[in-house]
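User: For my dataset I need records formatted as: sequence, then structure tokens, nothing else. Please produce one.
Assistant:
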Amino acid sequence: MTYYYPQDNAYDIIQKDIEENFHTSIQKSREDVKTIVVVGAYHGYEISRLLNNYPSCIIHAFEAVPKHFAVLSNNYANNPRVKLYNLALSDEEGEIDFYELGNGGEGSGSLLKFKGHELGHHFNISEVLKLPCSTLRKILPDLAIDLLWIDVQGAELKVLKGANLADCKALFLEIHTKDYKNLWDKEPYEDQCYKEDLEEYLTDFSLVSVGLDNHSGNGQGNSFWRKKLT
């Protein structure tokens, strides 16, 4: 059963809750959390908090866009508990087109083409980058993951299909829902996935949604998923 966070700032509340308490949902102590993977790390704002909350963990952080990776590297390259990867992740390997956004959309780029601006959204495509892409399964084979954190603007399912989820205990995903007010939020990224697509795929791995917000009504929300308890 999914719990919907009712607060006005639910987007931030659920993130803070997961940063501080996700270990209780997977029945571990803070010290027993060993591996967190962040895909779409941007500048890594959440990484310092996760490091503090989980003192034994190693964080693997992926950021595809070179200029954002430079900031991420400046922040964490000297931290032995953070492993950095300047790489896009999907369900296939090779070179991809990555659509970087501007006009306030910096950090919201995707390997999916943004089209919200065609319907009046203020974000727009500022450049198309050719970037290397791989799969999580290839980069971190057989790694047991306590928390897989993904923020990739509609391409979450592609990342998940390229990952080994058999030994993944929990997910924190920024997802899209079909509950929106403005037409440009119906499908801002071409061929993006929705909550229902994720639910259908993740059920085979016994990963269930236990927390979601979409208070703003823009069709987006932070969501938390964990293995079914036995």
